[in-house]
Amino acid sequence: MKVHLFANLFVLIFACKNVESSKILGVFPMAAHSHYTLGFTLMKELAERGHEVTFITPYRHKEDIENLKLVSVEEVVEGVTEQKKQLYNMHEWSFYYQAKFILNIGIDFTRKIFNIKSVKDLLRSKEKFDVIIMENFINDAFIGLGNHFKAPVILIAPGPTTYLCNYFVSNPSPSSYVPNIASRFSSDMTLIERMKNLYYDILGEYLIHLYAIPKHNEIMQEYLPGTPNLREIMSNVSLILTSSHVSINTPAPTVPAVKEIGGYHVSKPEKLPNDLQEFLDNAKEGIVLFSLGSNLQSSDLPEHMKNAILKTLSKLKQKVLWKFEVDIPNKPKNVKIMNWLPQNSVLAHPNIKLFISHGGLLSVIESVHYGVPILGIPVFWDQEFNIRSAENNGFAINLPFKELNERTFSTAVNDLLNNPEYTKNVKSRQKILHDQPLTPMDTAVYWIEYVIRHNGAHHLKSPSLKLKWYQINMLDIAIILTLFTILLFVIFYFIIKHIISMFGDTTAVKAKKN
Ligand SMILES: *[C@@H]1O[C@H](CO)[C@@H](O)[C@H](O)[C@H]1NC(C)=O
Questions:
Q1: How many angstroms does the Cα of residue 144 sit away from the middle of ligand 1?
Q2: Does pLDDT of 6 surpass 60?
Q3: Which of 135, 323, 349, 387 is deepest in the core (most CB within 10 A)?
């Protein structure tokens, strides 16, 4: 018994030692603050836990962190500022056009990253890594880094599993009850909506497999020559960690190589600047926080919307804190504007009563984490999807961008502030989010170290990775059964025909006799 215990202890120490200081490459080049947050919080945590982390990033953090080495790609930041101005127009585009726009951003962006000197230097270096952690955001060519550095690859999905990542691990996503991320459906779909959802899924699959993946393969072959075809190596991905959780997203199937870590990016609230802290503390009637995130600028809102919003806000007894990038003439007394604000730390303040948001997934998660109801003004991509889901869970009102006017805005704001149901519902969601055996961050670190301990943890892989799409959906069997059924009918038909003709003959003979 004792020996057993010792052996266990030894294995435990050895296992921990094994991963105590692994070499980790983090690939998070996307020039958007929300994407940066997803990478930075995780890389920082891994560095603090003693791993040696190399982090490809377009942004710089304030102070140096031990064990965290930057490979800066800040060159890419400038290029996207102009693209971001287009985002307000996106709600008018068709599904196909939106999807293609996003895919093209991803393709251009990936090529740009491979062309940056710091990245080229890293590729030429003799560096070795035990694991590569990369954000999965239409940058499939980066998968080749796994082959290049001979290391397992873990993907961080900036949302729930979607057709943008399902194929790596063959994760099922039935169109009958898993709404497409760019749709406006909840999981409760009518027959027509299910048909549309199937159409969106097929269109998405088509764009990914016949348009994006071949392009990414080209990029990969150009910058990482000698890599096998992308289609062959993509199933080598070890694990996908998703920013989702049942407290926030509608439940959907996940294979063992998918783990949910939604909420891991929410860090402890930081100390606020004195004037902001005072503003929050002194708002006895409560505060409405208003922010459209880092990609959309509130100051770019059309004039009539700005006026409608200001008119409503000025009539509230609550104070309003608005992330607004320029000065507002005749700003109402109860409104404070800041061109940048520490959203996470502000949301943590107990006086916050309502969050008016664009519905970015990280904002929705933070809202649930701190128990604040949401007025969602979704503009593009997954935002309406996130808000719909929050609305279904009873803690949000969905006010699509193009429907925003004084009447709709003021009705929604007042309903959310005066009806206690919304707060009650968000608090119960908050409880679900926090009721987990490990915190989302501990879960993330556990599975990352697990992949290192088990050399890529390929035993988690679903056997369906070996099957073709029509085999997984059993279309081959359906065709065989259909053909077989048709054959049976044909045989039956001829038998009947034969019998009838026999009868026909005998009656004919009888008729003759008479
Ligand atoms: C597959 O993953 C393993 C690690 O799990 C890695 O060593 C290998 O290089 C990868 N192969 C390819 C072709 O990417």
A1: 9
A2: no
A3: 387
Range of the domain at 369: 274-434
Mean pLDDT of 120-144: 95
What pairing do the DSSP bridges indicate for beta strands 352-357 and 23-27?
Answer: unpaired
pLDDT (0 to 100) of residue 505: 64
Boundary of a domain, candidates 385, 416, 434 = 434
Domain assignment present for residue 13? The answer is no
Pocket test for ligand 1, best of 148, 150, 455 (most atoms within 8 A of CB): 150
Give the residue, by CA position, lying nearest to ligand 1 atom 7: 150
> Which atom of ligand 1 lies at the shortest distance from residue 146's CA?
14
Cβ(160)–Cβ(139) below 8 Å:
no
Cα(470)–Cα(19) distance, integer angstroms: 40
Q: Residue 118: CB within 6 Å of ligand 1? A: no
Q: How far is the CA of 117 from the centre of ligand 1 (A)?
A: 25
What CATH number does residue 353 fall under? Answer: 3.40.50.2000
Which atom, in ligand 1's list, is nearest to the CA of 236?
1
The region of weakest confidence among 59-68, 225-234, 413-422 is 59-68
Residue 271 tokens read as 């100390």
**Residue 302 lies inside a defined structural domain of this protein:** yes
Provide the domain count of the chain. 3
The 319-323 sheet, strands edge to edge? 335-338, 319-323, 287-291, 352-357, 374-376, 396-398
CB 144 near ligand 1, within 6 Å: no
Whether residue 514 lies inside any domain: the answer is: no
